[in-house]
Amino acid sequence: ENSLLGLKELSAGDIVSILDRAAYWEASFPKQTDTLHGKFIANMFFENSTRTRFSFEMAQKRLGAQVMNFAAAASSVQKGESVYDTVRTLESTGVDAGVIRLKPIGLLAEIAQKIKMPLINAGDGNNEHPTQALLDLYTMRKHFGEIRGLTVSIIGDINHSRVARSNLWALTKLGAKVQFCAPETMKAPDLAGLAPYVSIDEAIRADVVMMLRVQLERHEQGLMTTAEEYRANYGLTVERMHAMAKHAIIMHPAPINRDVEIDDELVEHEKSKIFEQMSNGVPIRMAVVERALS
Ligand code: CP
Q1: Mean pLDDT across the stretch 127-153?
Q2: Atom 3 of ligand 1 has which residue's CA nearest to it?
Q3: Which residues are annotated as a binding site?
Q4: Segments forming the whole domain that contains residue 182
Q5: Does the beta carbon of 281 lie inside 6 Å of ligand 1?
Q6: pTM for the whole thing?
Q7: Do 80 and 156 share a structural domain?
Q8: What is the mean pLDDT of residues 40-53?
């Protein structure tokens, strides 16, 4: 099984071997390879993306694969064709593997059971975003040398976050301590008991302070708080940054709501790994795409 649907089901050994292989690919930059010469990969994004889609394409091209980008807005999805029929159609044309991003919860697992080509999850609803968490772990390992023993605070909209879930599964398998910080309305009932909720003052004293985007598009009844209130109560402000440990780092999967969950001037602060996370997405996705087709 070469699909990558999530990190919950992956062993610590599998995760470490992906991180190691990504380090191998990063060390080979800027050289390109023909490792996947003759392989066809479809990027199927049924939900918008900038960095995941673009870095998958960069990774696939660096591996020498033929890349096909499917745009839902210009497809027969607009005529009512289902996601399953769309994926099955692309598979029928001879595509060797698919990268897929979907909004409906549970749909990816259902489709993966009926599709023979390997599928890589590029984010499904609030369930998992495995390559994001892998690039997050890769970034932490590069900075600290190892994951074991780190305390990682994940702060913000935990309930709507596939990034929080994939990080929780992977970080705990690799021996890190995960803690959450969120307002009541953003706590995740399905994760109760798996990581403690701490105050914002405690959360910012961790080794890794990972801020999450407030996902306005997923809040059906609105935030029930203003951006200013959110920033004051849960945002990483400059003042809070000064209370962080000297060695600690700031992370955020992006896109970012500047001056809501993180102050504008912290995005490219020396403590921030935000753009390095995006760079690290390329070698991680090379390792994952290579694994899918090996
Ligand atoms: N972090 C992330 O998944 O960003 P995109 O939605 O732009 O791909």
Answers
A1: 98
A2: 52
A3: 51-52, 79, 101, 129, 132, 162, 213, 254-255
A4: 130-277
A5: no
A6: 0.96
A7: no
A8: 96
Q: What is the pLDDT of residue 219?
A: 60
Does 1 fall in a domain? no
Q: Are residues 61 and 109 in the same domain?
A: yes
Query: Is 3 among the domain residues?
Result: no
Which atom of ligand 1 is nearest the CA belonging to 123? Answer: 3
- Complex-level ipTM beyond the 0.90 threshold: yes
Contact 161 CB / ligand 1 (< 6 Å)? no
Q: Which residue's CA is the nearest one to ligand 1's atom 6? A: 49
Residues 158 and 122 in one domain: no
Give me ligand 1 centre to Cα 53, in Å: 8
pLDDT exceeds cutoff 60 at 220: no
Q: How far is the CA of 132 from the centre of ligand 1 (A)?
A: 8
- DSSP annotation of 64 reads T
Q: Are residues 147 and 251 in the same domain?
A: yes
Quick one: pLDDT at residue 227? 87
Classify residue 157 by its DSSP letter.
Answer: -
The CATH number assigned to the domain holding 83 equals 3.40.50.1370
| Ligand 1 neighbour 280 (Cβ under 6 A) | no
Q: What is the distance between the alpha carbons of residues 150 and 164, in angstroms, rounded to a whole number?
A: 16
Backbone angles phi, psi at 51, to 5 degrees: -75, -35
Query: Angle at CA 151, nearest 5°, toward 146 and 157?
Result: 120
Could you list the beta-strand ranges (E) of the chain: 40-45, 66-71, 97-102, 119-124, 151-155, 177-181, 208-211, 249-251
Q: What is the pLDDT of residue 207?
A: 98
Query: Considering its fold, how many domains does the chain have in total?
Result: 2
- Asked whether 196 and 179 are in contact (CB, 8 A), the reply is yes
Q: Best of 44, 50, 274 to mutate for ligand 1, by most ligand atoms within 8 A of CB?
A: 50
pLDDT of residue 72: 85
Confidence of residue 224 (pLDDT cuts 50, 70, 90): low
Assess whether 105 and 237 both reside in one domain.
no
6 located within any domain? no
Residue-level pLDDT at 216: 65
Residue that the structure tokens 């995005």 belong to: 267
Determine the distance separating the centroid of ligand 1 and the alpha carbon of 122, expressed in angstroms: 9
Q: Is residue 191 part of a domain?
A: yes
Q: Which protein residue has the closest C-alpha to ligand 1 atom 4?
A: 51
